[in-house]
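=== Discrete structure encoding ===
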Amino acid sequence: MSERSGAGRAHQGLRIRPALPADMEAIQAIYAHHVLTGIATFEEAPPDVGEMQLRHARIVEAGLPYLAAEHDGTVMGYSYAAAYRPRPAYRYTIEDSVYVAEGCDGRGVGSALLAALVARCDQGPWRQMVAIIGNSANHASIALHARAGFDTVGTIRAAGFKLGRWVDTVIMQRALGEGAKTPPEPSRDG
């Protein structure tokens, strides 16, 4: 995720909506830029549009939100929630991802996307949201998540090697809905 730490002001005319299969070309271009030039993601080769469509379909089919930020018909960023880990005991924990198009940093796009994502996830059965942030020096993403109520819970040092350097992973977390105050509904705990 890339956004200057001073962000947060709402971008005039920005619309947050569910991402559509037709958005995947723009979303792929946004993500490809981050894959090739940054360390927010540990992916090293950008997936093609077909792969991005498959990923989108999997998330939507799982009942998780996948959102796009649009202004004047242009996708300026996207966010989604995905399963944190595949084992059944993790089913109430999800992971967020937020990416903003090059040149759209500092306009509140990331803040709007993350706020909308958290609001949608608060309404679901999930109890925790985790942010896995590439690069402990990614102050913009860390600040974005802190403003959205996430706490830093740990750092994995030198977790990846990308663009010629070792990169840390910062783990942030926030409760959703009732959090850990109550057990999950019995019908969902089977």
Q: What stands out?
A: The first helix runs from residue 24 to 37.
